[in-house]
Amino acid sequence: MTQDVRFGWLGKSRREALQTLLAGLVEDWARNWWIGSAEGAIEVHANATDLNRDPGPMHWVSTGDAGTLAIYSGGKDFDAIGRFLVGANPTTDADTDLARGLGEDALLDLSSRVQRRAGVTKTVKLCEERAPLSVEHARLGAFRVTAMVGRWSLDLAIDRNLADRLVPPPAIARQPGLVHRQDAVQNAPLRVTAVMDFGSVDLAHLSDLGVGEVLVGDRKLDEPLQIHLQGHGAIAAGFLRRAGEKRAVMLDGHT
């Protein structure tokens, strides 16, 4: 079901990094298990084609919390894999059992190497089943390599989750997070006005005012000024003071 998988191709740089990483793991694994590794060639390359989902071939699949890995052994069962690795054909039932056990251990070790590299401490065993969609299509973030171990060809495919564990995506620059409203507006400039309530005078005193005349109101000198904030009206009371060459107001209380 495609609703359970994530869509998204891996970028070129990450595909190249995954190929290099998986190639190193497969080559080290083959040299440890294949008797012909001293003379035979081991080649690993990226494979952009989808995994084969025909009714015939099955895959060895390991699925855990870190992601899914699938190995297609080219139609070889554990017995055939074991015989290839040791370069001999079993002649007795005991030899056949030994080859089968060797093939199973070798394939499980390959899976474990990939999972350990992804940070998985407890590896998940392989099960023979159909590979899930998450490791089948590149459009779902799957990545696949084909390894040629001598004349044996096997495919190794991983899903996007496992790819992200093996080669994490580049860190994305974090966008500034939301801040408290007070922090966001505290540096906004606002106009502050100190208003002196002059009081009332007779209209007759205003009709013939001239330059130099003194207008006297009915408010006392010790009465506070009203401090007005732009857009909010009076917010406090205070008294006029002087700070050097500038006007200042000493607050007396909130309104």
Structural descriptors:
single chain, 2 domains, Surface presentation of antigens (SPOA), 255 residues, alpha+beta, rod-shaped
Low-confidence stretches: none
Radius of gyration: 40 Å
Strand order in the largest sheet: 1-5-6-3-2-4
Task: Provide the β-strand percentage band.
Answer: 15-25%
Gross morphology is rod-shaped
**Largest beta-sheet details:** 6 strands, antiparallel
How many H/I helices?
A: 6
- Assign the structural class, choosing from mainly alpha, mainly beta, alpha/beta, alpha+beta, or little secondary structure: alpha+beta
Main CATH class of the largest domain: Alpha Beta
Number of strands: 10
InterPro entries: FliN-like_C, SpoA-like_sf
Protein name: Flagellar motor switch protein FliN-like C-terminal domain-containing protein
Pfam family, one: FliMN_C
